[in-house]
Prior knowledge:
Distance between the termini: 38 Å
Low-confidence stretches: none
Strand order of the largest sheet: 13-12-11-10-7-6-16
Number of strands: 16
Helix content: 25-40%
Number of helices: 16
Amino acid sequence: MYKVLLLACYELGHQPLSLAWPAAFLRQDGRQVTVYDLAVTSLGEDAVRGAVREADFVGVAVPMHTAMRLGVQAGKQVRALNPEAHICFFGLYAMLNADYLQRAENGQGPLADSVIAGEYEEPLRKLVATMAAGEKADEVQGVSTPRQQKEAYLERLRFPVPDRRGLPALNNYAHYMYDGTAVPAGYVEASRGCLHTCRHCPVVPVYGGRFFVTPLETVMADVRQQVAAGARHITFGDPDFLNGPGHALKVAQALQREFPDVTFDFTTKVEHILERRELFAPLYEAGARFVVSALESTSDFVLERLQKGHTLADMDEALQVLDEADLYVQPTWLPFTPWTTLDDYLHMLHWIRQRNLISHVPMVQLSIRLLVPPRSALLDHPDVSEWLGPLDQENFTYEWRHPDPRMDELQQEVTALAGAEGGDAYAGFAAVERAAYEMAGREAPAWTAPVIPDLPPPRLTEDWFC
């Protein structure tokens, strides 16, 4: 029997859907599939090492930058343990970094024998069938090899229910926390890809403005099995839940009808909050408790450079829409870009404080530095020659330096503060303020901490959102 091993490395604190869905496709074909999440289980464990040595085919899921960095390390260990196995990297960052993954180095072969991106499950299924038959992978649609490069596979799939057998229990992953209580959180996707083309987003080079809806029945079947496994909150991990607003509302209302005590969160753009404002009260009634939205910057100039599709004024209006629907916001930020000035950074801190959002913003969000992966849409920007440095292939991003050296220094300082953060949101935020104002040679504004701080807003126990 041809043995398939699928590995995940990190998925924002969620049980990896990037293993559950391909496992479902492959098991439908009768394949012997073993899954391990290396965010929970180490490659050093005997059982994992044994599975690696026995595998004919090893798939490594790399849906994001952190997963890519960890996945390459895992791939090298797999190659050392089992030189004969076919290693396939699949996910967004596989295609972005295909050149690195499939180049030969130091007289050795490439790390990846194949690379797949986009709607990768069908090409993966066909690739495994091809390899099991003893044939070459070069002609499989959607599969890139060192000899034949292919574009991302963007055909609509017939989704089976994700197969979560063999994955660690939900208690090992992010929990939903509110009012001092933490409960296990499940994770589903009602759609994949995205209609929008924000320049810094890794979805854009792969999907190019396309998105695919997951059938309601499939979404609910996945919700059902996670609730049975202990989930009391569901994260809709779509790049933008409201790309298909009618579908999103149907999914949310189906969740509420079947599981009225299960809450959920979702991600959407500022412009969708404004365009679809009539949906937010019904979504709250269906169980929505917070919304993740990529605000990114309080500078209209930076927002235009990123092609975000919203302005600072839009952000204030969006906060009002969510407040009227009793929904909390978990904003994500991109505070350090080549175009963000020190005054911009100070303005962002002031804006966050004035709108009582301090407890909504994990400190790590105040330290995020722009990543420019290979194939990024930012590489086509007219001013790219003014700030772009060489490609650091081993870190999967182009280097860049800010024209104001203070900004690079501040980013490092805020990163260190976030790493030492002690759990007091107000004290941590004040430390960042002091560092930023000191860098600007100005005195930080005086403020008084609340005598009785507000309850922390509902959130997940994982501070990364994108």
